Amino acid sequence: MATQHLEHSGVSWKGQQLGHKHSRIDTLDPRLRIIFTMIFAVVTVFSQSFPSLLAALSFALLSALFARLDYKRTVRRVVAMDLFIIFMLILLPFTTPGDALINIGPLQATQQGLLLALAIGLKANAIILMTLALTGTLNATTFGHALSKLKIPDKFVYLLLFTVRYLEVINREYKKMRNAMKARAFTARSNLHTWRTLGYLFGMLLVRSLERSERILAAMKCRGYTGKLHLVSTMKIQRQDYLFTIIALSLSAVIIGLHFL
To answer: What are the sequence ranges of the domains in the chain?
Structure first.
């Protein structure tokens, strides 16, 4: 089944615009892609040997190439994740007991801490690349339908779908209020008045969001909504999905095997 590349609704949410070229991965069943992403993450997290982690990172890089991800966008996302954990990785060699490797004044970096930081870095990059390759190319609607087919509780699926659907609506409300503030010559500064005004802004955004949600619920009830959405999808296991399953399980077995070598 070909993955649709834009949100089917009339809402223009930029996060739904997938800027990658169509690939063979897009023809795979979304449910299998989600399942293998979870399997790969679990196997990688519990791997401790560097050969297995390097193999996991290599498989993730190959998957990213097969998925034909946008190079610049992928690098930005990976770098953003690395910046999030880089301080933890820098501190680990100095906070993990073990054999001294480097002395910087009163601080002592250990070999065990350095190896632990490298292992965490390899795990994080392998998992994020595989996630971007397999599930990052799914639009939110397809992702929500796949979660529903995997028997994820309906409340979580509906929350995801409604959030995606009305995120742009809330963004438009925010822009209207910001423009109204600018029309009244508001300029953000580092003072109490600015913080109080921004607090009022976000408070009014919450109030308007609540009012909009009540109107939407009333409109849905007028159309027969009873608390359950009927998700229409045509997900079927095809021949390439069986091949993908065999390859995915084989790669997982290789990672596990290298861990015990």
So the answer is: 14-146+236-260, 150-222
